[in-house]
Amino acid sequence: MLKLFEYNWQVRKDWFAWCQDVSEEDLPKKRTGGVGGILHTLFHIADVEFSWISDLQGKREFTEPFEDYANLQKVTDLSARFHEEVRPFVMSWTNEMESKELSELTSAGEPVNFKYGEIMRHVIAHEIHHIGQLSVWSREVGKAPITANLIRRGLF
Amino acid sequence: MLKLFEYNWQVRKDWFAWCQDVSEEDLPKKRTGGVGGILHTLFHIADVEFSWISDLQGKREFTEPFEDYANLQKVTDLSARFHEEVRPFVMSWTNEMESKELSELTSAGEPVNFKYGEIMRHVIAHEIHHIGQLSVWSREVGKAPITANLIRRGLF
Fold it and tell me: Which stretches of chain B are assigned E, i.e. beta strand?
């Protein structure tokens, strides 16, 4: 579990560095699919990871809109700030936490239960999926994407 | 580990069903990013999963080109055939296999070692990443993508 989080964090860091060479118009530009743009995707990834892991810790979710963070420095800083709160929880994960239950309410007000292990894997898959979208849009910008390879990253 | 494979297999099956309603021109059509098309991506995902897991079992990789499988039925059948060989290995995964070593040669002929656990996570991330690309291209075709959510799939 931990290795896949470390992979995501490394890839996200690489994408923030990648963004440094992209024009200020291209990063927030509206695009087809996903949440609709490169910078908005990075914001969304950081938001979703933080909000779910806050839920697992009984802390408040993040609810501020992308519009308040629509430049590269702000999203980079937000992601770094969230990382400081997310990382200790992920690093202290144990197998016993797998089957703990999180109770939420759906938007219709219905109770719904999730296993902690289910939420953790959801968060992992969520980031990788959205990064896949960045890899398409990177070609529209005319730049090669960050490699998605998990091997050869020094993680093992 | 197993849950993320099950997630990928379920999502892949959903995408094959999704393809049924897409025109025969749109599926192989060349697109920006990734391996360059919807059908080619599904072929590539099945190929990479099968080839790495064959490596871990000391079996031969798959080396046939996409061009020999460039229609929906052929890729669906290939993925199903590969699944029969991949699934027993994944289902019998144990923690002791994590640190087993796979020795490969790079394209330059240099020896390189991977941990079995590293390869398994690489395969998981590889599929999720490429499915993220499909989710962008699906909008180009005018169809909603398959949900990438891992929660609410009955996996836990």
Answer: 101-105, 111-115
C-alpha B58: how far from chain center? 19
> What's the whole-number mean pLDDT along residues A129-141?
97
The reported pLDDT for the residue numbered A156 is: 96
CA distance A22 to chain B (A): 17
- pTM of the predicted structure, to 2 decimals: 0.98
Query: Is B122 close to A149, i.e. CB distance below 8 A?
Result: yes
Mean of per-residue pLDDT scores for chain B: 97
Give the residue ranges of DSSP H helices in chain A. Answer: 2-19, 38-56, 72-91, 116-140
Cβ–Cβ of A122/B151 closer than 8 Å?
yes
Q: List residues of B whose CB lies inside 8 A of any A CB.
A: 3-4, 7, 31-34, 114-115, 117-119, 121-122, 124-126, 128-133, 135-140, 145, 148-151, 155-156
Kindly identify which residue of chain A lies nearest to residue B3, measuring between CA atoms: A121
What average pLDDT does the segment A86-114 reach?
95
The answer to whether residues A19 and A38 touch, using CB atoms and an 8 Å cutoff, is yes
3-state class (DSSP) for residue B117: helix
pLDDT single digits (tens) B72-125: 999 999 999 999 999 999 999 999 999 999 999 988 999 999 999 999 999 999
CATH architecture under which domain A2-140 falls: Up-down Bundle (1.20)
Work out the burial of residue A48: count CB atoms within 10 Å of its CB; fewer than 13 is exposed, 13-18 middle, 19 or more buried.
middle
